[in-house]
Amino acid sequence: MSDFQATAIVVGLFLLRCIVPLVIVMVVGYFMNRLADRWQAEDELGLAQMKDAAPQPVRNQHSGVSVPVITIPCWILRNCEPEARSDCPAYRQPGLPCWLVKSSINGLLPADCSDCPIYGQALVLA
Q1: 15 and 38, same structural domain?
Q2: DSSP per residue over 57-80, as a string?
Q3: Residue-wise pLDDT tens digits, 52-102
Q4: Do 44 and 79 sit in the same domain of this protein?
Q5: What are phi and psi of 54, to 5 degrees?
Q6: Which residues pair with 67 in a beta bridge?
Q7: Which of 9, 24, 53 is the last residue of a domain?
Q8: Share of the chain above pLDDT 70, in %
Q9: 3-state helix, strand, coil in the chain (%, to 5)
Q10: Structure confidence at residue 67 (pLDDT)
Q11: Cα–Cα distance list, 2 to 10, 11, 15, 16 (Å)
């Protein structure tokens, strides 16, 4: 075997061992990045469509009654002052219904929640 052939074999094995896996990892990473960008764009589009869509009535499974979904936060519905909002636990957790936050903190449902339309909607949908 000549020196040229030996050198070619060593270079070829080096390429097979190091460079080819590196290229494969870079190609997979590129396509994963494109996929993540596509998922993020779809998610942003879905959020924009959700904000634009009006709340649709929800049909109760038991009674078959259609009830409009109330998406107004309780502090807007009750016209709370900004000072009272900062102390309100429901204002600090806007993803949960206000009656659920208050009852989990106090252990009992507050008396003013029984006539609230947000709580009434939860009862109808249950």
Answers
A1: yes
A2: PEE-TTT--EE----S-HHHHTT-
A3: 555 555 554 555 555 455 667 777 877 888 888 888 888 888 777 787 888
A4: no
A5: -80, 150
A6: 58
A7: 53
A8: 77
A9: 65, 5, 30
A10: 47
A11: 13, 14, 20, 21
